[in-house]
Design goal:
Shape: elongated
Oligomer: single chain
Order of helices and strands: HEEEEEEEEEH
Radius of gyration: 23 Å
Helix content: 10-25%
Number of helices: 2
Structural class: alpha+beta
Strand order of the largest sheet: 4-2-1-9-8
Number of strands: 9
Length: 156
């Protein structure tokens, strides 16, 4: 009887946790000159100027011999927005770089390109993956099913 109560409690807990599952928005920037890339995640689309410290970036590939201090996206809710990278110290004589885009606003998943075709950079806005709720339920009930034989074997 206790086993059935435990299964019901686990199932109810999994169902209660399902509405909290959501995918974050991943912002990935890459540039050919200087050769660098970085990315960060936010829970929703950003709608205001945003600055992210280097420690909060999910991936960082700075230009050779340089380190990134922070990155920013300015005016994401407008048609003309900008992406900036600030370096911790001078990098090839520059304290940072900035790229202007004119295919905003950033309100949908996709690839954004600069308004100057001579600048080889992209901002890719994508969704991170989250396990679907039925998979979580299957995993939880399977784990509970494995516990029963283990309990019988090791507990008197």
């Amino acid at each position: 009887m206790r086993c059935y109560i435990a299964i019901a409690a686990l199932f109810a807990a999994e169902i209660a946790a399902l509405p909290n599952a959501h995918a974050d928005i991943l912002y990935s920037f890459s540039s050919a000159t200087p050769n660098m890339s970085w990315s960060f995640t936010e829970p929703t689309f950003i709608t205001a100027d945003t600055t992210v410290a280097a420690a909060s970036l999910t991936s960082v590939n700075p230009p050779a011999g340089c380190s990134i201090f922070n990155v920013s996206i300015g005016g994401p809710a407008t048609v003309n927005f900008s992406v900036g990278t600030n370096f911790a110290a001078l990098c090839n004589g520059n304290s940072g770089t900035g790229v202007g885009f004119n295919d905003g606003p950033i309100n949908h998943l996709g690839t954004y390109s600069p308004n100057n075709p001579d600048i080889h950079a992209t901002l890719v806005v994508s969704s991170t993956t989250v396990p679907e709720p039925p998979s979580l339920i299957l995993l939880g009930t399977g784990a509970l099913g494995l516990l029963s034989p283990i309990r019988r074997r090791f507990l008197p």
